[in-house]
Amino acid sequence: MFTASALLPPVGKCRRYERKALQIRQFAGVKLDEPLDPYLLAKHARLRVVSLDELCGLSPEAKSQLLKCDPDGWSGGASEPLPDGSRLVILNPMHGRERQAATLMEEVCHVFLGHHLNRLGLPVHGVSEASRDYHQIEEEEAYAVGAAVLVPYYVLREAVEMHLPIEALARRYGVSRRLVEYRLRVSGLCLARVLAEIS
């Protein structure tokens, strides 16, 4: 039996996010230390991942805006519900598979957490920027819970204790180094990681 201290960060909203992530992992039927494939979980959230190339009717300006390879730029989004209740998820094909996994997991979490749909407005002729309705609190929660689903706190603690390199952890769980570093930081394990590396 795992204790709360082994499964959850010590304090703060990160603890709440971790609980929600553990519930999603339990629903997915994966073990605590097992990698989770967000593409399989997306089916349970009634999300269908499609390529940008599969979308008809996008203007060249819209495609150009969406295909920017900005690491901090647009990474993906979900459509409004289709007649059958499912949604399409479009991922930026210029981003690597690890970034796409995190983006898809964030969209899955929006569904599981019952968030409002953020509407992405594609650029139109004469307007260079895309606009979107943006709910900061829901976006933060979906990203944080999604990251915790992909790399649980328990796994991070074990990795720190075993001096496992960040790259090895990222590779095992199919995520970027940046996501692992984020998880270490928000979980309060960043200092422990530094101390482990210098000792």
What would you say this structure looks like, in words?
With 199 residues, the protein is mostly helical. It has one domain (4-198). 51% of the residues lie in helices and 8% in strands. It has 10 helices and 5 strands. It has helices spanning 4-7, 13-28, 38-44, 60-66, 97-112, 136-150, 153-161, 166-173, 177-186, 190-198; strands at 47-50, 76-78, 87-91, 120-121, 131-132. The strands form 2 sheets. A 3-stranded mixed beta sheet has the order 1-3-2. A two-stranded antiparallel ribbon has the order 4-5. Helix 5 packs across helix 6 (136-150). The chain starts with a helix and ends with a helix. Mean pLDDT is 82; it is low at 121-132.
Strand content: 5-15%
Query: Which descriptor suits the 3D outline?
Result: globular
In the predicted model, the low-confidence regions spanning at least 5 consecutive residues are: 121-132
Class of secondary structure makeup: mainly alpha
Characterize the biggest β-sheet: 3 strands, mixed
Order of helices and strands: HHHEHEEHEEHHHHH
Helix proportion range? 40-55%
Q: Round the Cα radius of gyration to an integer and report it.
A: 18 Å
Give the count of structural domains. Answer: 1
Strand order of the largest sheet: 1-3-2
Provide a count of the helices: 10
User: Gap between N and C termini, in Å?
Assistant: 31 Å
Quantity of strands, as a count: 5
Average pLDDT over all residues:
82
